Amino acid sequence: MNYPLANVHPDAKIHPSVVIEPFATIEANVEIDEGTHIYGNATVMWGARLGKNCRVFPGAVVGGEPQDLKFKGEETVAIIGDNTTLRECVTVHRGTASKGKTIVGSNCLIMAYSHVAHDCVVGNNVVMSNATQIAGEVEIDDFAIVGGGTLIHQFCHIGRNVMIQGGALINKDIPPYVLAAHEPIAFAGINVIGLRRKGFDNQTIEEIQDIYRMLYLSGLNFTDAVKRIEREMPQSIERDRIIEFVKNSKRGIIRGYNR
User: Fold this and answer.
1) Which tens digits make up the pLDDT trace of 38-68?
2) For the whole model, what pTM was predicted?
3) Which residues have a catalytic role annotated?
4) CB proximity list for 230: less than 8 A, separation 6 or greater
5) If you write DSSP's letter for every residue of 119-178 in order, what string do you get?
6) Phi-psi region of 229 (alpha: psi -120 to 50; beta: other; left: phi over 0)
7) What pLDDT, in 10s, does the model give residues 211-250?
8) Are residues 186 and 255 in contact, defined by beta-carbon separation less than 8 angstroms?
């Protein structure tokens, strides 16, 4: 393999089909799978693992050391799934001893100037709009869309098929299928448009709406509301996913919107 004017370490494992443009840097202990394109001035650092057909745009850095004072140089990785795009100046840091790896899933779009910190787990088909900043050990589940300029506190959990408004400050968990908006961030309804785009039928959307009416509008605290949902709502994948999310939330879920 010959990459004129690119700085490619000879020990990097790179599929022959990978394109590496001039002035890109690929360090040792890097693996890049077939069809991936590394643009000029992008940097793929020690411990990075890139899947198939990824695109890493100029100024992006994958595999940088964690910004964590507890990090002592342990061998960790940053994993990028297939068909994921990292736009200009995106940074994805590798893990620490806590989890050992940072993961960005497949078919994701991480827009310019966004940051994925150490030990985060970003699911598949996630969109992080420009300048989204997520702190260490955040989890973002599949099909979530995060508005531009959003800040997410460490250890927060963002549920699947969520839509978050731009410029949000997230310091609580956001359960699946909802719109999160306002300041401070709050439950603002169901992500109906997003769910329809993903093939959810009207009956399922109505069931999700009924669950969240019990959770946010019944006047019960979240613990009692969950018990009522378990009692009164028919079992389904969506119902059980919401219940499990609320029960397992470590930071607590966002509150309802008070006008």
Assistant:
1) 999 999 999 999 999 999 999 999 999 999 9
2) 0.96
3) 118-119, 136
4) 243
5) T-EE-TT-EE-TT-EE-TT-EE-TT-EE-TT-EE-TT-EE-TT-EE-TT-EE-SBB-TTE
6) alpha
7) 999 999 999 999 999 999 999 999 999 999 999 999 999 9
8) yes
